[in-house]
Amino acid sequence: MSRFLICFLFLLLSSVSAAGRFLRLAKPDPSAAAATARWLSSQNSWGVLSTISSDLGGSPFGNVVSYSDGLPGDGRGIPYFYLTALDPTARDALRDERSSFTLSEFPLATCGDIDPENPTCSKLTLSGKLKLLEFNTTEGEFAKKALFTKHPEMEGWPKNHKFRIFKLNIEHIFLIDWFGGPKPISISEYLESATNRVSVF
Amino acid sequence: MSRFLICFLFLLLSSVSAAGRFLRLAKPDPSAAAATARWLSSQNSWGVLSTISSDLGGSPFGNVVSYSDGLPGDGRGIPYFYLTALDPTARDALRDERSSFTLSEFPLATCGDIDPENPTCSKLTLSGKLKLLEFNTTEGEFAKKALFTKHPEMEGWPKNHKFRIFKLNIEHIFLIDWFGGPKPISISEYLESATNRVSVF
């Protein structure tokens, strides 16, 4: 039996590693739309940030980015990013702040055999304005800690790339977590949704 | 020892399942940019499709979608989608075809402990025009088979949702697979890149 226990622990640790090094919270019931949206924000470690491309004449441009909405187990729902203007996404945002940030439940490995496009495998798109944050502010310090804790290697990224912190000011929330179309969630419902705060270290 | 073997096989099958039910090909060398881009297209099963949102006044809107670029082991590089106009992405594309499709290496579990935003964890954005395909054409039949083989449940999705096949006509390729910025890849280099065709069933 001890070998099975070792096997089980190995599987558990593999699962934790795949999600971004931190233990995961249980998925809320699909009827709890705001909680589900917050769960997706807090449990993922990366997503696709879409901007209006200045290089491509105003076409949409989605880019894979890491993010954090807070310390592990204490997500606040607002995604923060660590971007360099060497990359088109930051350059685009500095010209046109309109952007969206898209997350899927699929990489959290809780969709089972359900197809990633199936509405019960939840998906979240937060739309709004991508804003540059100053480092030496209360929110800038919070964001830096949130990012560097979930993405430890960021702290060592090249200084001459001039990475800056960006924040998505959310203006619209699109969540699909069940059949029947997107769930209506207001910004305040999303931001004020109770988070299941736990110690995960 | 047999218990360890069972454990190993279970882990192997878990890994295969996470990638979308099919065995994976080895990642090309980062110096082979077009092959790496094709590898990302053929090995992923879902990504984020970004359009110009008509609901949100022209803001970019990224949506999680499933796709296929061909039968398993025989990807052709062009992503096909199965979308309903009940969803904003298809509605947007029917008004403004400009779109981008974004894939990450991270869900393929080949990035190891590297952060999803690290340039060595490769990322691909295909930009172009999202076109509606007719079912009863040679390409429409190819696309349907490619989609339904990689995403078997699609065939049973509700008829009254009027799912249609869309194709991304690629006009620009953005690939990051190493340090030093995006790799220049032409459309023909991408489409003509040798694929490692193998039988994976």
TrEMBL record, chains A, B:
Coiled-coil stretches are none
- Organism domain of life: Eukaryota
Recorded hits in InterPro entries, A to Z, give:
CREG_beta-barrel, Split_barrel_FMN-bd
Q: May I ask which residue range the UniProt record assigns to the signal sequence?
A: 1-19
- Which keywords appear in this protein's UniProt record, sorted alphabetically? Signal
Q: In its keyword annotation, does this UniProt entry include Signal?
A: yes
User: Which Pfam families does the entry mention?
Assistant: CREG_beta-barrel
GO cellular component entries:
cytoplasm
Report the residue ranges that make up the CREG-like beta-barrel domain in this protein. 28-191
Name of protein: CREG-like beta-barrel domain-containing protein
Instruction: Specify the species.
Output: Rhynchospora breviuscula
